[in-house]
C-alpha cells in the first residue's frame, strides 16, 4: 500500500482526513474491507510504535512494565501456537502502554540448535544462511500481525554480537567455580549424536526431540553446578505467586528435592598412575561428622567404576583412595551393594552412588570398619551430644554444627553447597557444531585456560560437516593465552538453554559493546513483570533462567533473585486429526462427513477423530498465514483470544459458528460507528439524534458488543455526549486486540466536534489513554471470615489496583461492628486478598489451622458466584 501524501499543510482538517482509509463507509464490514484497511493502517501503527520506543522521556518518567514473550526458534514460519502467545503478549503490552506504563516489549530469535545444523547438512547450505532467511521471513510475519515489539531490541542468539556475551557469562560462572568440567555418565541421543539433559528425556526414556531411545555414555563434560543454587532456588519459590507458578513450582520442587545435606568433594587418587586423578563427590546429611569417616562407600553405578576392574567383588576395597578435605589423610574406598544407598529413582537405581561411612553414627559401618581393620575415631561425647575429635568443630552440639561444616567446606572449595541428594548438575556440553563455542583452551602446561575476555568472542569456525576436520583446523590449534605454547580449543558448544537463560537481560541493553548489560539498567528494569510462553518450554528453561539470575544476583548485577514476576503458561493449540484403524493420518481435505461420522474419501474407511498437537506428520496444522489471508489480521487476533482461556489447551476449530461470532462482533461495532457518524453529520439536529426506539436498540447493541459489566452503570443519557464518549471508549478497550479496525473507526468519528473535549483528536487510537472508571461508581468489597461473608463495603474500582491486605484491613476496621463480626484477634487468621480488577474485591480471613486450606478453597468457590 502506498502511503498517502501528508496534506496537513494545506488544510486545517487534513490531520483527520489523512488517517481515514474509507472515504465512503461501506454499510457492512467484510473480510475484504478488513484486509484493505489493515494494509492502510499497518505502517501507521508501526510508526506510532517506533516513535514510542524511541521516546526517551517516556523511558525516564513512567513506571516500567516489562512484558516478555518466549522468543521463537526460527524454524521457518510462525505456527498458530506462536501467534496465540504473541497476540496475548501484544495485547498486554498495548493495554499497559495505554495505562501509562513505559512498556518494554522486545522480541528476538533463539537461533542456535540442531534443526539448522541438520537442514544445513541436508541442503548443503551454511546453517547461518538457513537461519537468517528464516528469521527474515518470521520477522515479516510478526510485523504483519502488528505486534507492537520494540524492534530496536531485536537479537539473535547465533550472532557473535550476542554469543560473545553468553561466553562472557560462561567465563564468570567458570571463575566462580559454578561451571566445572567433570567426567560424567551422560544421556546420549544416538540419532542426533548429542548429550541430553535429564529434563530433555521423556518418561519413556526417549529424547524429547528425536524420539530415540537414550543411551548412557562416559564423557568429560562441562557442567553448571545446579547444586550451588539448589537451596536458593528452593527457598525463593515461596516468593512466586501460587496462581501463576503452581505447576512449575511443583515440578521444580520435585527436581530439586529436599535440601537437607551437601556434597563433600574429596580429591581422588588412583593406585594406577596411568589414571588421571579426579574428584569424588559424596552426598551427606551430616557433613559435621567428617572427622569420624572411616571409609567411603560407592556402588556399581558410580562413574569411577568405569576406570576400575570390572571383576571387583562387593564389600571389597577399591584400588583408589579419597583425601580427607581437612586432615589430608587417605580414606579407603569400598564397593558396596545398592541396598546400602537408600531411595531408588524411577529407573530402580539409588539416587546417590556414594556414601560416607561414619562408625559413630552407624552400627553397621562400625562393624564393617572393625572387620576390615579400618581406623576410626568416636566423634560424639555421648554424655552431652557434643562433637569431639573433630578439629574446628570440637565442643559444638552435633545437630547445630551442620551449617558451620558446610561453610568450612565451601571456604576450602571442597563442596558444602546445601542441596538435595537428587538434583543433578546441568550438563551444558554439546558435541554439535551450531551452538555457542565454549571459550576455553587446553594447554599441556597450563591445563584449562579461559579465553581472555578481550579475545571474545570465540567465533564459530566455518562449518565442517560432522566435525571431521575441525580438529585439524587452524581454528582448533591455537596458542595458549598464558604460556604462548601450542594449545587446542574446546570444540564442544553450549546447550542452547544456556543462550536462552539470559536473553531477557540482553534485551535491556542490546547494543552494549562493553558488557552483557548495564547493571544500572537491569536494576531499574528487571524483573520481567509478565512472562508468557508455551507451557512445554516452561520447565527446563525456567529452571536454568532462574539459576543464572540467582548467580547474577550474587554478583550484584540484578535487583532481585527471581527473573520473572508473573508467568502465563499458554496452553497448546491442537488440531483435529483423522486416523485410520492402522494409525495412518488422513488430511482433512480427504475426509467426508456422513451422519456425524467421518470417512476417508478414497477408501470409504471410517476414521477416528481426535485433537492432537499440531504437527506436519499429523497433517493437522493450520497455517496462520491462511487465516490472515482469508479473514484478516484483526480477525485472527480476536479469534485466537476468544472462546478458550489462554492457559488452557485449545482444540482448534474454524467452525462456522465461531467464525460468524467473531465477524459479528466486528460488524456490530462497525455499524455502531457508521450510524453514530451519520447522526453526527446531520446538521443542527443533535437533539434528535435518536428517537426513543433507536436509542434503546443502540444502547442494547452497545452493551452486547462490549460484553462487560464495565458499562452497566455508565450514565448514558438521551441527547448526551456520554453515548459518543462510551462508543469511543469501547473502541479504545478493543484496540489492543483489534488495532487496525479500531484505528479506522476512531478516524471516522474523531472529525466530529463532539470529541474535541473528550479525546486528543490528533492521536491515533492506540496512542490514546485507557479509560478511567467513573469515580462515583463503586463496586462490592467483601470481608469473608472462614469463607463466610460477614461485612460488605464499597470501593472505587480505580482504588483496587493499589489495594493490599493491610489497606484492606484498615478499611474494614473502620467499620463499626468489625470486631463483633470477626470475633477473634487478627493474629489468629491467615489474611489474603482476592481482587477482580474493576469488578470486586474480597478480603479473606481464614483461621490458622489444618482446616484453613479447605476454607480457602471454599472462599474461592464463593467468589465465582
Ligand atoms: Zn599454557
From TrEMBL:
InterPro entries: aa-tRNA-synth_I_CS, aa-tRNA-synth_Ia, Leu-tRNA-ligase, M/V/L/I-tRNA-synth_anticd-bd, Rossmann-like_a/b/a_fold, tRNAsynth_Ia_anticodon-bd, Val/Leu/Ile-tRNA-synth_edit. GO terms for biological process: leucyl-tRNA aminoacylation; mitochondrial translation. Belongs to the class-I aminoacyl-tRNA synthetase family. One of its GO terms (cellular component) is mitochondrion. This is leucine--tRNA ligase. The keyword Cell division does not apply. It catalyses: tRNA(Leu) + L-leucine + ATP = L-leucyl-tRNA(Leu) + AMP + diphosphate. Residues 49-253, 423-594, 612-642 form the Aminoacyl-tRNA synthetase class Ia domain. Gene3D superfamilies: HUPs, Isoleucyl-tRNA Synthetase, Domain 1. GO terms for molecular function: aminoacyl-tRNA deacylase activity; ATP binding; leucine-tRNA ligase activity. Residues 717-816 form the Methionyl/Valyl/Leucyl/Isoleucyl-tRNA synthetase anticodon-binding domain. Keywords: Aminoacyl-tRNA synthetase, ATP-binding, Ligase, Nucleotide-binding, Protein biosynthesis.
Amino acid at each position: 500500500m502506498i502511503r498517502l501524501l501528508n496534506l496537513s499543510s494545506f488544510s486545517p482538517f487534513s490531520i483527520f482526513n489523512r488517517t481515514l482509509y474509507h472515504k465512503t463507509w461501506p454499510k457492512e464490514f467484510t473480510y475484504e474491507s478488513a484486509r484493505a484497511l489493515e494494509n492502510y493502517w499497518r505502517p501507521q501503527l508501526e510508526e506510532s510504535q517506533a516513535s514510542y520506543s524511541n521516546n526517551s522521556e517516556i523511558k525516564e518518567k513512567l513506571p516500567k512494565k516489562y512484558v516478555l514473550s518466549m522468543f521463537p526458534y526460527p524454524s521457518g514460519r510462525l505456527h498458530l501456537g506462536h501467534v496465540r502467545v504473541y497476540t496475548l503478549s501484544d495485547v498486554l503490552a498495548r493495554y499497559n502502554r495505554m495505562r501509562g506504563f513505559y512498556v518494554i516489549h522486545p522480541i528476538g530469535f533463539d537461533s542456535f540448535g540442531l534443526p539448522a545444523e541438520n537442514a544445513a547438512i541436508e541442503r548443503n547450505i551454511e546453517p547461518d544462511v538457513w537461519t537468517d532467511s528464516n528469521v527474515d521471513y518470521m520477522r515479516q510475519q510478526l510485523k504483519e500481525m502488528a505486534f507492537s515489539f520494540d524492534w530496536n531490541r531485536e537479537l539473535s542468539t547465533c550472532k557473535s554480537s550476542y554469543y560473545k556475551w553468553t561466553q562472557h557469562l560462561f567465563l564468570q560462572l567458570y571463575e566462580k567455580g559454578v561451571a566445572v568440567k567433570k567426567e560424567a555418565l551422560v544421556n546420549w541421543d544416538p540419532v542426533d549424536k548429542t548429550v541430553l539433559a535429564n529434563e530433555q528425556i521423556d518418561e519413556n526414556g526417549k529424547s524429547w526431540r528425536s524420539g530415540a531411545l537414550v543411551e548412557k555414555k562416559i564423557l568429560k563434560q562441562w557442567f553448571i553446578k545446579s547444586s550451588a543454587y539448589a537451596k536458593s532456588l528452593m527457598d525463593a519459590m515461596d516468593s512466586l505467586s501460587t496462581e501463576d507458578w503452581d505447576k512449575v513450582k511443583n515440578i521444580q520442587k520435585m527436581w530439586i528435592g529436599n535440601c537437607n545435606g551437601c556434597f563433600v568433594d574429596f580429591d581422588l587418587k588412583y593406585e594406577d598412575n596411568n589414571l588421571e586423578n579426579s574428584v569424588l563427590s559424596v552426598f551427606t546429611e551430616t557433613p559435621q561428622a567428617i572427622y569420624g569417616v572411616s571409609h567411603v562407600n560407592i556402588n556399581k553405578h558410580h562413574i569411577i567404576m568405569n576406570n576400575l576392574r570390572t571383576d571387583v567383588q562387593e564389600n571389597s576395597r577399591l584400588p583408589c583412595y579419597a583425601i580427607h578435605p581437612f586432615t589430608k589423610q587417605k580414606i579407603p574406598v569400598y564397593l558396596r551393594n545398592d541396598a546400602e544407598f537408600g531411595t531408588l529413582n524411577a529407573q530402580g537405581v539409588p539416587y546417590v552412588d556414594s556414601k560416607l561411612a561414619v562408625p559413630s553414627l552407624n552400627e553397621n559401618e562400625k562393624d564393617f570398619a572393625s572387620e576390615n581393620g579400618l581406623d576410626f575415631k568416636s566423634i560424639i561425647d555421648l554424655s552431652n551430644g557434643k562433637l569431639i575429635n573433630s578439629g574446628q568443630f570440637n565442643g559444638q552440639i552435633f545437630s547445630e554444627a551442620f551449617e558451620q561444616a558446610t561453610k568450612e567446606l565451601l571456604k576450602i572449595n571442597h563442596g558444602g553447597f546445601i542441596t538435595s541428594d537428587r538434583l543433578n548438575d546441568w550438563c551444558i556440553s554439546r558435541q554439535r557444531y551450531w551452538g555457542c563455542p565454549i571459550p576455553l583452551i587446553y594447554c599441556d602446561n597450563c591445563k584449562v585456560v579461559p579465553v581472555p575476555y578481550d579475545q571474545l568472542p570465540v567465533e564459530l569456525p566455518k562449518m565442517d560437516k560432522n566435525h571431521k576436520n575441525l580438529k585439524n583446523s587452524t581454528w582448533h590449534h591455537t596458542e595458549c593465552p598464558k604460556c604462548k605454547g601450542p594449545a587446542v580449543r574446546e570444540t564442544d558448544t553450549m546447550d542452547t538453554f544456556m543462550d536462552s537463560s539470559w536473553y531477557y537481560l540482553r534485551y535491556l541493553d542490546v547494543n552494549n559493546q562493553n558488557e552483557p548489560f548495564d547493571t544500572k539498567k537491569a536494576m531499574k528494569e528487571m524483573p520481567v513483570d509478565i512472562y508468557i510462553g508455551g507451557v512445554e518450554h516452561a520447565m527446563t528453561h525456567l529452571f536454568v533462567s532462574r539459576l543464572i539470575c540467582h548467580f547474577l544476583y550474587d554478583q550484584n548485577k540484578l535487583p532481585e533473585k527471581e527473573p520473572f514476576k508473573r508467568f502465563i503458561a499458554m496452553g497448546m493449540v491442537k488440531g483435529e486429526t483423522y486416523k485410520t484403524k492402522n494409525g495412518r493420518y488422513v488430511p482433512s481435505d480427504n475426509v467426508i462427513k456422513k451422519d456425524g461420522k467421518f470417512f476417508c474419501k478414497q477408501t470409504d474407511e471410517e476414521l477416528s477423530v481426535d485433537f492432537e498437537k499440531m504437527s506436519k506428520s499429523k497433517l493437522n496444522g493450520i497455517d496462520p498465514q491462511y487465516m490472515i489471508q482469508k479473514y484478516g489480521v484483526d480477525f485472527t487476533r480476536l479469534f485466537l483470544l476468544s472462546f478458550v482461556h489462554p492457559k488452557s489447551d485449545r482444540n482448534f476449530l474454524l467452525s462456522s459458528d465461531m467464525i460468524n461470532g467473531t465477524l459479528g462482533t466486528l460488524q456490530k461495532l462497525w455499524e455502531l460507528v457508521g450510524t453514530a457518524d451519520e447522526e453526527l453529520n446531520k446538521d443542527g439536529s443533535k437533539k434528535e439524534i435518536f428517537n426513543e426506539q433507536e436509542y434503546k436498540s443502540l444502547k442494547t447493541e452497545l452493551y452486547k458488543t462490549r460484553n462487560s459489566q464495565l458499562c452497566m452503570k455508565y450514565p448514558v443519557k438521551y441527547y448526551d455526549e456520554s453515548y459518543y464518549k462510551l462508543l469511543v471508549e469501547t473502541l479504545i478497550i478493543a484496540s489492543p486486540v483489534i488495532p487496525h479496525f479500531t484505528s479506522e473507526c476512531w478516524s471516522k468519528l474523531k472529525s466530529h466536534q463532539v470529541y474535541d473535549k473528550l479525546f486528543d483528536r490528533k492521536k491515533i487510537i492506540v496512542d490514546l489513554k485507557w479509560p478511567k472508571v467513573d469515580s462515583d461508581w463503586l463496586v462490592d468489597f467483601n470481608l469473608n471470615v472462614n469463607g463466610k461473608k460477614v461485612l460488605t463495603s464499597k470501593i472505587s474500582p480505580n482504588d483496587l489496583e493499589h489495594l493490599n491486605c493491610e489497606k484492606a484491613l484498615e478499611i474494614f476496621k473502620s467499620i463499626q461492628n468489625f470486631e463483633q463480626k470477626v470475633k477473634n484477634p487478627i493474629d489468629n487468621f491467615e489474611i489474603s486478598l482476592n481482587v477482580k480488577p474493576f469488578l470486586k474485591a474480597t478480603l479473606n480471613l481464614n483461621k490458622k489451622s489444618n482446616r484453613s486450606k479447605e476454607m480457602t478453597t471454599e472462599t474461592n468457590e464463593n467468589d465465582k458466584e
